[in-house]
Sequence to fold (314 residues):
Amino acid sequence: MTNRRQFVLTAAATAAALSCDRLAVAQDSAPELPVRFSLNTSTIRGQKLPIEEQVKVASQAGYDAIEPWISDIQAYVDGGGDLADLKKQIEDSGLYVASAIGFANWISDNDDERQRGLETAKHDMGLVAALGGKLIAAPPIGAHSGDSVPPPLPVIAERYRKICELGQETGVAPQLELWGFSPTLSKLGELAYVSSEAAHPMACVLPDFYHIYKGGSDFEGLSMIEASKMHCFHINDYPAAPARESIADKHRVFPGDGICPLPKIIRMLIDHGFKGTFSLELFNQDYWNRDALEVAKEGLEKSRKVVAEAVALA
Fold:
């Protein structure tokens, strides 16, 4: 009886071990997604969390990285926070700084405004560098309002080169950001022209699925931009209504919850060599009224799902 009981226990343990081994093999054989995922803190901006709490949310939700706003970093410093401590928190949480959102006026036709904007950009880049970050957004601030008369594209390219030179000094590259509602840099062609004509090794672009749609560009235009120049890409989706002409940031939804053909576009990006970070950027009031961690988790789950669908496409 003792031998029989021992045999049964041994057999059960062996079966359990084999089952665990099969599960481990199945998990190991699951395809690795060729991109990483970041939480742009605009997605939980309505909850008004300090940056230390934003880091906790991004980490607990399972993101690879965080994309903070410069205003939140500055508020931390103004409140007596030490950037070295924040950097350690980010790293200890298993995160990196994928990018940061700043609003330096580097493009203005007013010389004084533009000079102040460059000083702001250098300051902001310093904050990002102190956190170990290598990228910062460079949207068309100074030529983005509806009544703006933007400079010609060759002039914008010269001014973008100036901010790239600051990036070379600080080690933080300014990503030329697409804004679909802006009178300039609202089209993929404009983004490609300015970044190319700037002729600077740090030149790179920051596209956004919503802004490409809002600006009226065809997503096929992404294939004309070198994948290695897209380090960070804002991921989101948009509904069928309101119409493109009247849709706004607040209407953005989780990836896969709108009408954007994300898997098809993402597959094209991957096929062209994109291996950067998808950063979830939303401004949806409904999400701001929910628990921040719950929103962050759902956003990551749906972001990963559309990328997995893209990888699975024939």
Observations:
- Residues 153 and 194 are 6 Å apart (CA to CA).
- Confidence is low (pLDDT under 50) at residues 1-30.
- The longest strand covers residues 36-40.
- The radius of gyration is 22 Å.
